[in-house]
């Protein structure tokens, strides 16, 4: 019986003759295990076992028969159950059938509408000469050398090499033996420049930094920290000339024009991937808008749990004890604010999965093997060892699932109507 959305309820009856057979089997098992005074092991009469261990016998019979008959019933009804059922209203009296109700969720049945020909915004990206020049300047900047200059007072444009220690206000204390700062850098807190400007190599100075409340490093946000800095040396940045020698220094190039061509191609690929990704996200959002179907709470709960853990992992930058974390924060409340995103992500996943099913898409063994090889190369491990590790933690199945989904999304994009 459908209650609402994905929630179903079944009323199930276990016949009396099956209860008797199961009871006899449970009693027989207990006879072999229990030791009673006056009886040899395994020889205690069944009547005594029933009398003395009646509660245990009853519980075992329920635990054995209820799941069995629940599974039998959902198979008969061809229901795709999600999560564990909630068993309620159990009636178990001597001489009568067992009757109980099971409340549970089922996976939604998605009637896929027209998924080919969805209109999305997309245009082939362009790469201008200015774009190439800008990227070359970035490469040139990374190849710059820093040269010591004669001792004098630090001025804007100088690179100051300093040692830095927190005197007060930072926990744990901050210590950097050698740190390079550009005097007058617009991207850094201005207090650093003001403190270092005018210092000469060998001189020391204490100064305060008031970190804003939204500072990226959370351990410093909103704090007032007093620092002691010693200026070690002053340097200037020397950029290499953009010529054929610069090209040869970058790798397998002979001329600067070859580097320009490679940069242009790289930028085109980057922008094409970004534009496609944006169009694919729009495409999936449109599919979600045109397909209305209920979601099992079990799916949403799993998605919110995973996203909550991932957010904390990103924030801390490391693994953490999830059990301890849940003791210190209102975990349920934190998860609940992730519900809208979870609804979107679960719907998207189910729709993409349905597209793959309708289009008969799957990951081939060769495709999975290539991905395993790529992961092994990246981790610098033997392919066989990496495969064994991925099989052990269940990642092979996830790799195949991701390949299948990528194929479905690419098919949707390939057949979409694209508007500039």
How would you sum up this structure, described in words?
With 420 residues, the chain is an alpha+beta fold. The protein has three domains: 2-106, Alpha-Beta Plaits; 145-238, Chitinase A, domain 3 (Roll); 254-419, Trigger factor, domain 2, CATH 1.10.3120.10. It is 50% helix and 19% strand. It contains 14 helices and eleven strands. The protein has helices at residues 16-33, 46-52, 54-77, 129-142, 190-196, 244-250, 256-290, 297-316, 322-328, 331-336, 339-358, 365-379, 383-392, 395-414; strands spanning 2-4, 7-14, 81-91, 98-106, 119-121, 145-148, 159-168, 175-182, 204-210, 224-238, 417-419. The strands form three sheets. Strands 6, 7, 8, 9 and 10 form a five-stranded antiparallel sheet that branches. Strand 1 and strand 2 form a beta hairpin. Helix 4 packs across helix 7. The longest helix is centred in the middle third of the chain and has 35 residues, at 256-290. It is elongated, with a radius of gyration of 34 Å. The two termini are 49 Å apart.
Chain-averaged pLDDT: 90
Largest sheet: 5 strands, antiparallel
Topology, number of strands: 11
Question: Portion of residues in helices?
Answer: 40-55%
**What's the CATH H-level superfamily name of the largest domain?**
Trigger factor, C-terminal domain
- What is the CATH topology of the largest domain? Trigger factor, domain 2
CATH class assignment of the largest domain:
Mainly Alpha
* CATH architectural name of the largest domain: Orthogonal Bundle
Determine Rg (CA atoms, Å).
34 Å
Low-confidence stretches: none
């Amino acid at each position: 019986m459908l209650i609402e959305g994905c929630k179903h309820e079944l009323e199930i009856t276990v016949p009396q003759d099956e209860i008797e057979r199961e009871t006899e089997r449970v009693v027989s098992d207990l006879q072999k295990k229990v030791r009673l005074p006056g009886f040899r092991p395994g020889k205690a009469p069944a009547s005594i076992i029933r009398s003395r261990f009646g509660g245990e016998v009853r519980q075992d019979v329920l635990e054995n028969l209820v799941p069995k008959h629940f599974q039998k019933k959902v198979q008969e009804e061809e229901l795709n159950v999600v999560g564990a059922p909630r068993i309620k209203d159990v009636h178990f009296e001597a001489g009568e059938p067992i009757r109980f109700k099971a409340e549970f969720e089922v996976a939604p049945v998605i009637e896929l509408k027209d998924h080919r020909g969805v209109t999305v915004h997309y245009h082939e990206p362009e790469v201008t000469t200015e774009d190439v020049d800008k990227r070359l300047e970035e490469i040139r900047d990374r190849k710059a050398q820093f040269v010591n200059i004669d001792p004098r007072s630090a001025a804007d444009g100088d690179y100051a090499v300093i040692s830095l220690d927190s005197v007060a206000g930072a926990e744990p204390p901050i210590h950097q033996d050698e740190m390079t700062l550009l005097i007058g850098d617009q991207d850094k807190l201005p207090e650093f420049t003001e403190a270092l400007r005018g210092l000469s190599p060998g001189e020391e100075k204490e100064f305060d930094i008031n970190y804003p409340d939204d500072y990226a490093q959370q351990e410093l946000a909103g704090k007032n920290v007093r620092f002691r800095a010693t200026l070690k040396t002053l340097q200037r940045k020397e950029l290499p000339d953009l010529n054929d020698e610069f090209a040869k220094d970058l790798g397998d190039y002979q001329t600067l024009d070859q580097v320009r061509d490679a940069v242009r191609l790289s930028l085109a690929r980057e922008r094409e991937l970004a534009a496609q990704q944006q169009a694919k996200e729009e495409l999936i959002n449109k599919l979600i808008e045109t397909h209305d179907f209920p979601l099992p709470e079990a799916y949403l709960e799993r998605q919110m749990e995973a996203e909550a853990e991932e957010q904390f992992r990103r924030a801390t930058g490391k693994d953490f004890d999830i059990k301890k974390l849940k003791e210190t924060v209102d975990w349920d409340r934190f998860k609940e604010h992730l519900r809208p995103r979870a609804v979107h992500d679960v719907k998207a996943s189910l729709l993409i999965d349905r597209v793959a099913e309708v289009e008969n898409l799957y990951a081939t063994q060769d495709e999975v093997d290539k991905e395993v090889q790529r992961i092994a190369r990246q981790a610098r491990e033997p392919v066989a060892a990496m495969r064994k590790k991925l099989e052990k933690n269940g990642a092979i199945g996830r790799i195949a699932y991701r390949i299948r989904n990528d194929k479905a999304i690419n098919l949707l994009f390939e057949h979409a109507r694209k508007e500039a």
